[in-house]
């Protein structure tokens, strides 16, 4: 009886084994291939995070001194440059117009004078001389005017150049400030209550070696833990080595007392 | 922070620690075996129910019981006999044996028949409920095994976190998600096993009840037969 039963059950187990193994095999295949597509949105999210942390293009920023990593800075500078260029163009246009006007006036006057000369040549030499004198006076006055205009233009040009230099300095300073913000961002320990979009203003006193003398929160983010963490991060850094490369006059102008908006981008919430 | 690779389930499994992988393998095997048993049990119990109804019809059709027994003999030589027919055959075999030996005391004869049928019934019950204990243990234990894998994985993930300076969700999340795969697999193995265990144990119980009823009826029939035999003698 029993051997028969065992034999029977051996036979009847074969099909269930096959079906069960097949079923799990299909499931495995589904897991390997089928659910890959469902994972895609998740995959999209991870590179975004990586992008946020990988903002370490230090050498580029230092060499070019171009504010590439901070789009906001670029915006400001570009806008101002654009404005300036527009102004310059307007000025040039105006000058060109004036010149043309003058040319036209002069031609008119000459023609007039010639006519007068033709008319009055026979009549009076005095009058001719007078006219000549007047003409000369006119020309002199015109020349004077032109010279004045040129001088004014040169002045404006010089002023502009100075402004440009100042702006360049400012751009450099801004790039260094961005670098400092990056350093702080790398060194701060993120409090759990920190949220995206929080920012606070820090006033940092520095000396030319880049060492931090004092740091205070000027404008709170509204979250004291966040403020404290930012302050702690600056204190922890202690010395911004990058600032050694800044020219002394730029340093004096911008970095003796620098106000920095701390707005970390690495938060995920 | 190398989460640039995909977070698909298969990569999570591959990157898991050895113990968690072992747990997953164990659970996978448990799932395979329990499904095997679920299918086999379902098939067997369905067959048993069908054969019970068929046999009952044949039994109460009023034919000769000796003929029924001889038919069974013929079938038994080709393939084994299951279910209620076994009970009938044991009882009938005992009855004819007692009659051949010429026992006259009806109570002794009935006692022998009843004992033979009880043995057959117990054997059939055992056959019906075979493998059900395995399903029950898979159902109750595999969530715990999965949970163990998860706890281990999360433990490791947090231990790794202790060394990281800046703890973001992104540093913990892959480890936890990896660990949770073990729990998912435990539940995956346990849920069908629970359902199958409940269903099949209820089925087996109702079938055993049917068998018992049949055995009683058959006993009554034989009882009549034995007493009429002894009365006529």
From TrEMBL, chain B:
GO biological process, alphabetically ordered: bacteriocin transport; cell division; protein import
GO CC, alphabetical: plasma membrane
Residues that span the membrane, as ranges: 12-39, 132-155, 175-197
Domain of life of the source: Bacteria
Listed Pfam families: MotA_ExbB
Protein topology in the membrane: Multi-pass membrane protein
Domain MotA/TolQ/ExbB proton channel residues, every copy: 85-212
Record localization: Cell inner membrane; Cell membrane
Keywords from the UniProt entry: Cell cycle, Cell division, Cell inner membrane, Cell membrane, Membrane, Transmembrane, Transmembrane helix
Complex and partners: The Tol-Pal system is composed of five core proteins: the inner membrane proteins TolA, TolQ and TolR, the periplasmic protein TolB and the outer membrane protein Pal. They form a network linking the inner and outer membranes and the peptidoglycan layer.
Family under the similarity heading: Belongs to the ExbB/TolQ family.
Function description: Part of the Tol-Pal system, which plays a role in outer membrane invagination during cell division and is important for maintaining outer membrane integrity.
Stated name of the protein: Tol-Pal system protein TolQ
Organism: Pseudomaricurvus hydrocarbonicus
């Amino acid at each position: 009886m029993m051997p028969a039963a065992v034999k029977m059950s051996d036979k009847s187990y074969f099909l269930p084994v096959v079906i069960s193994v097949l079923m799990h095999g299909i499931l495995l295949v589904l897991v390997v291939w089928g659910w890959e597509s469902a994972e895609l949105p998740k995959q999209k999210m991870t590179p975004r995070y990586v992008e946020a942390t990988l903002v370490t293009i230090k050498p580029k920023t230092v060499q070019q001194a171009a504010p590439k990593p901070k789009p906001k800075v670029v915006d400001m500078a570009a806008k101002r440059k654009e404005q300036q260029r527009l102004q310059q163009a307007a000025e040039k246009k105006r000058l060109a117009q004036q010149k043309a006007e003058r040319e036209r006036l002069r031609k008119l006057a000459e023609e007039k004078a010639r006519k007068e000369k033709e008319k009055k040549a026979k009549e009076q030499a005095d009058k001719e001389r007078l006219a000549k004198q007047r003409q000369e006076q006119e020309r002199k006055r015109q020349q004077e005017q032109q010279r004045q205009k040129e001088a004014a233009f040169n002045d404006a040009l010089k002023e502009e150049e100075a402004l440009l230099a100042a702006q360049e300095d400012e751009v450099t300073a801004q790039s260094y400030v961005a670098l400092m913000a990056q350093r702080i961002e790398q060194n701060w320990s993120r409090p759990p209550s920190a949220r995206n979009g929080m920012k606070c203003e820090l006033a940092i006193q520095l000396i030319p070696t880049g060492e931090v003398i004092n740091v205070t929160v000027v404008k709170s983010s509204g979250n004291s833990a966040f403020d404290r963490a930012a302050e702690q991060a600056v204190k922890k850094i202690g010395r911004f080595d990058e600032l050694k490369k800044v020219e002394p006059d730029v340093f004096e102008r911008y970095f003796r007392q620098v106000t920095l908006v701390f707005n970390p981008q690495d938060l995920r919430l | 922070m190398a989460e640039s690779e995909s977070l698909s389930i298969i990569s999570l499994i591959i990157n898991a620690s050895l113990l968690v992988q072992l747990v997953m393998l164990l659970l996978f095997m448990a799932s395979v075996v329990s499904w095997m048993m679920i299918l086999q049990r379902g098939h067997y119990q369905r067959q048993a129910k069908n054969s019970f109804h068929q046999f009952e019809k044949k039994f109460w059709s009023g034919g000769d019981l000796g003929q029924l027994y001889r038919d069974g003999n013929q079938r038994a030589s080709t393939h084994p006999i299951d279910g209620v027919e076994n009970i009938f055959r044991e009882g009938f075999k005992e009855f004819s044996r007692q009659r051949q030996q010429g026992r006259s005391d009806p109570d002794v004869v009935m006692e022998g028949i009843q004992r033979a049928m009880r043995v057959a019934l117990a054997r059939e019950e055992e056959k019906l409920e075979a493998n059900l204990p395995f399903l029950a243990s898979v159902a109750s234990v595999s969530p715990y095994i999965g949970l163990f894998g998860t706890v281990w994985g999360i433990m490791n993930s947090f231990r790794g976190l202790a060394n990281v300076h800046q703890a973001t969700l992104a540093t913990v999340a892959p480890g936890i998600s990896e660990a949770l795969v073990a729990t998912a697999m435990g539940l995956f193995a346990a849920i069908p096993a629970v359902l199958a265990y409940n269903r099949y144990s209820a089925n087996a119980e109702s079938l055993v009840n049917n068998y018992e009823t049949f055995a009683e009826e058959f006993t009554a029939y034989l009882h009549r037969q034995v007493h009429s035999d002894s009365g006529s003698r």
